[in-house]
Amino acid sequence: MSMSISRLSVGSPEMEQGLRSILEEMGAPEGEDWTASITRSTASAAWEVVFDGAPRTKADHVDWEILEHESGARFRRLLLGKDEQTLDYFKRSIRKLLWECVQFKDNPIRNHNPKLGDAFEDVVWGLLRNEDMNPIQVRFGVWREGPDGMKFVCKVEYASDRRVPWSWWSSLVRNPQDLANELTRALASRRKRQVVVAPSLRALGRRVARRGLRPTPPPPAPANTAATKEQPLNF
Predict the structure, then answer these.
(1) CATH assignment of the domain containing 113
(2) Contact assessment for residue 138 and residue 128, using Cβ atoms and an 8 Å cutoff
């Protein structure tokens, strides 16, 4: 997890320190090396943010100019105006790029309280970013409790053709720490199940190989079977 900073100059020592702290905290996924540069030419100019690192799916990062090369890819983006030239905006933007394994889909908490919405995302990202699930999708929901009270729910979902899928719902929680406690327990439980299931599957595979068993192929479908309609997923 290597992140190096080649240049950092936006005209404000305080802002530069904040940007540096975010980059150091953010790091990079295991096995990836990244180099960052954040500059602007004048006090009123855009921030030019440039990253060199591992390739990413272009369709998931349309806000970035992407130039692929032999050793990876170069990502460039201009942050314009006071709304984009903030530490919070910068953090969300680069987190989505660097850690695309954790994908935040819906977060209506931000509509009610942006800082609280960020805090919920931060605790979930911190717990999921190094898990062996890629990609993993995260959604939040808001539950109103009386005229002034609200509770929140989180759904985490991992789908894979190669590994056992995993889906988890939190209970209704009041704050990010409550969610962190629940998700920590859920991840620990998942890891324990993997420790038990993996040897069992390997042992089954060895027994099948020793006996020379082969799976029975499914019968061919009738020639004029009507097409089955795909059912939409309900989140």
Answers:
(1) 3.30.160
(2) yes
